[in-house]
Amino acid sequence: MLELRHISTFYGNIQALFEVSLTVNQGEIVTLIGANGAGKTTTLMSISGIIPPRRGEILFKGQPLHRMTPDTIVKQGICQVPEGRHIFPELTVAENLAMGAFLRQDKRAIKKDRDYLYSLFPILEQRRHLPGGNLSGGEQQMLAIARALMARPQLLLLDEPSMGLAPLVTKQIFEIIKKINQEHNTTILLVEQNAHLALRVATRGYVLENGVIVMHGGAEALLGNTAIQKAYLGI
Ligand code: ATP
Question: What is the number of the ligand 1 atom nearest to the C-alpha of 211?
Fold first, then answer.
């Protein structure tokens, strides 16, 4: 579904990604793990066209994304849930969800999707008339994911969904991520610092260090790899 071919991305003169290549097949959850500053967010920003790569290619279902603008990339069926959530704090939960569907015209299907998301996140239904800014961190993360799903993406890019959340809330979010993949048939590229959690929901994983992919493989194999255990799993 998605293929990055040797992409190199820069901030001015600073090179953040060095010939990064990765693939995501339809129906998979693929995780990209790595330490602070490894280039995980930059990889997602390159895919969504916010910081396009200077070299290399990005293909989505065979179409070159690396020449498209971010809004065109969203229209192809790719949605990013950014690190730190970035919901609209003054808009209500219901309005935030409506914003996620602003490119769609199919009112009936929009309502159906909203009802499905309320069943997936009952707390959001309870809080639907409250401003997004009044929600807890975990609820805001749920809202950010639900808002992205209102666009009916084929590929969801999730940036550090566990960031700043209590372990129990994180567990809940990861269960929902799995459900979205299985029930909603959404392919997911998941960026995480919490390698343990990420490799438990993913089918495959890539390890990024200083802008370079240093390892990739099946999630089980990476979980059992001694170098990964030492560097990322605290074992
Ligand atoms: P984190 O987990 O902290 O978000 P990350 O793996 O997502 O880390 P990136 O945010 O992609 O890493 O950063 C990769 C590199 O690019 C880092 O060296 C970072 O300092 C640099 N970088 C990121 N954003 C900018 C920017 N706006 N200007 C210059 N350099 C940047």
Answer: 14
